[in-house]
Amino acid sequence: MWSVMSKSVKVLASDSTGAAVLHVKVPFPFLVEGQALPAGKYSVQAVETHPSTLLIRGAKGSTSHVLVLTMPAAGPDPAGGKPALTFTRYETPYRLTDVWESRDRGRAIVQVQCEPETSARLMNKRSRS
């Protein structure tokens, strides 16, 4: 389930275990750390030894995964306190921008610079695989 907010999209996550693992279904391909990930189910969790790093891993049977550096996010959770991922669409693909665990605990993804042409090429390459 997702809703559009101007040029950004939020995807609500389910936190079924009460632990620090969020489970989410992303209905579209997206970029994170310059890596293209397909639409699908993902788990998101902090790396125990490096709390400012998140591991985003595809569901069973998926080889999609990426480690991302984060920093505290400013402002309140756009989902009103529910766990959520926020994506922003620039010229081409969606990019993961924030991960929210609760109303006041969010992590902003530290973005790497990626030119729009590079983003489009990454997304096209991923969709052909």
Please explain how this structure is put together.
There is one protein chain. The chain has one domain. Helix content is 10%, strand content 51%. Strands 1, 2, 3, 4, 5, 6, 7, 8, 9, 10 and 11 form an eleven-stranded mixed sheet that branches.
How far is the N terminus from the C terminus?
26 Å
What's the structural domain tally? 1
H and E order: EEEEEEEEEEEH
Portion in beta strands: over 45%
Mean pLDDT: 76
Could you describe the largest sheet, including whether it forms a barrel?
Answer: 11 strands, mixed
User: What is the total tally of β strands?
Assistant: 11
What would you call the shape? globular
Secondary structure class reads mainly beta
Helix proportion range? 10-25%
Radius of gyration from CA coordinates? 14 Å
Question: What's the short story on this structure?
Answer:
The chain has one helix spanning 116-128, and strands at 2-5, 8-12, 21-26, 30-32, 35-37, 40-47, 50-58, 65-72, 84-89, 94-102, 105-109. The chain is mainly beta and 129 residues long.
